[in-house]
Amino acid sequence: MIGDLFKETVWSLAGNKVRSGLTILGIVIGIASVIALVAVGQGAQNSIAKNIESIGSNLIIISPGSQRVGGISQGGGSSETLTTDDADAIKSEIANISAVAPSVSKRYQVTAKGNNTNTQIIGTNADYLAARNVAIGSGSFFGDSQLKSSAKVAVIGPTTSEDLFGTDADPVGQTIRINNIDFKVIGVTVAKGGSGFNNQDDIVYVPLLTAQHYLSGNSYVNNISVAAADQQYMTTVQSQITELLLRRHKISDSTQADFSLMNQNDIIATASSITGTFTMLLSSIAGISLLVGGIGIMNMMLTTVTERTREIGLRKAVGIRKIYINLQFLTEAVILTFLGGGIGIILGWLASLVISKLISLTAQVSLSSVLLAFGVSAGVGIIFGFYPARRAANLSPIEALRYE
Amino acid sequence: MIECRNLIKTYISGDVRTDALKGVSFKINKGEFVSIIGPSGSGKSTLMHILGALDNPTSGEYFLDGHEVSKLDDDELSDLRRNKIGFVFQAFNLLPRTTVLRNVMLPLLYSGMTMEERNKRAKECLRYAGMEESKFMNLSNQLSGGQMQRVAIARSLINNPSIILADEPTGNLDTKTSKIIMDAFRELNRKGHTIILITHEMDVADCANRIIQIRDGLVERDAPNKPNDHVI
Question: By C-alpha distance, which of B198, B190, B184, B158 is closest to B47?
């Protein structure tokens, strides 16, 4: 009996390859597009979240505010209003902070052993490691004595190390030249990932005082990174810093502040509103694909069954019981949707992989999107494959045979 | 073997009441070749549906091999059609894009019979119906009208039915092919099969040994006939 059912189903599907193929194609496209779209959306969201986290947690960044020269704003960050003394004051006067790292940064040409690269030089102190989630891979970071003595030592990022010394070389103990001054490499940081303009692996750290003496030539800093001891102190710490700096800079009106504070939550809030919109967009596209795919499947199934009403009538007339006719159509719908679903899942997954390769982003195929896409397509396929067939099988054979 | 007692069939569509059969009674014995003839609207199609266990009468009794057919449910009617009745339709009604052999085996689906047995029986029936062996694996849509009707006849024989019910079997065929098909029916009857032929053409009806004329839902005339082989 089951053998008959299976053979009859396969014969029937194979007997009309175009019809079966088109039905499967509809299911494949619906499922594959949903899986690929959702994978790309989630990949993008994860990559953005990861980037933000790599900046450092509980981080507050103080930047110099815009300076006004005769009423004309010079733009944010252009002013030289923050000093090392501000950073020291924050460290000594404000509670519940774990790190304060003032820093200056500028791009220089760096040379070593005849190789050279243009990279970001950051002058800072040891707190920078904690504030910005930087870890040392080999060697060590500079300590207090080296900071105070303006020692000409440098810690370099793994990308810089590769650019200057080649792969697998140990740069610790070697000398690099920045702005015609020799620096001794004392450590290499662990790779953080990230790419492009703001690559945190293509970087050279030097002691703050050294940078101020030999490179920038003044005592100002470009920004101060402050890490709160815990997430819960973020608000208090922020308001205390604002208060302290206003007092130190002798500004009474807070709207006239010559500095600005930004915390990681601000960045996360901005980023998540962007990724939220992005996810909404992708979800709507996925939803529309699913709807269109579903309508396609429904159409195909309905047409098929309508076309086959006479066949159903004949089967009934020659004495095949209703239950076997129903079972055959149900089996056909199940085979079609599962075949299409399987191919769709594989294709969607492959598409995600290809997209991951094309744009540097790890698309993540999620189980929920696979289940949703498969569930909707299979549901639509089976309902619209089975229900009209059931209706046709309930017709009297004469009516079904006469059906045009 | 077939007995109809006062068959009445009434269709009600909205307020309109149509009496298709108004009390039809007759008996058909094993081995007979009967034509049921009548103009369109006479009720002969309705009668054929009831005889073929495709439809139930509104009232009256229909016995087929001693079974009271009008009391059966859908599945029991299916079983009865499969085991006792062979259908030959005007429009042939073969499965499209399907081989001749599989078309003939269709009623054997879900019977539990082995594939070899089905093949053997289907081939026997096809030969019996005069189909050439070389065409057994052809697809049904590659056949001529006459060949399709032979396949349909072979299919009607597959379960060795008590009666063969042919509904306008020559309606879609030309005169020459019609004669060949009618000869095939006469041959089946000579071999002992009971045949009921429904038609509106006197020429076709004239091949039978008995003619039942239906008009306005009643039997108008029921008389033996001396078949005239030369008419068609």
Answer: B198
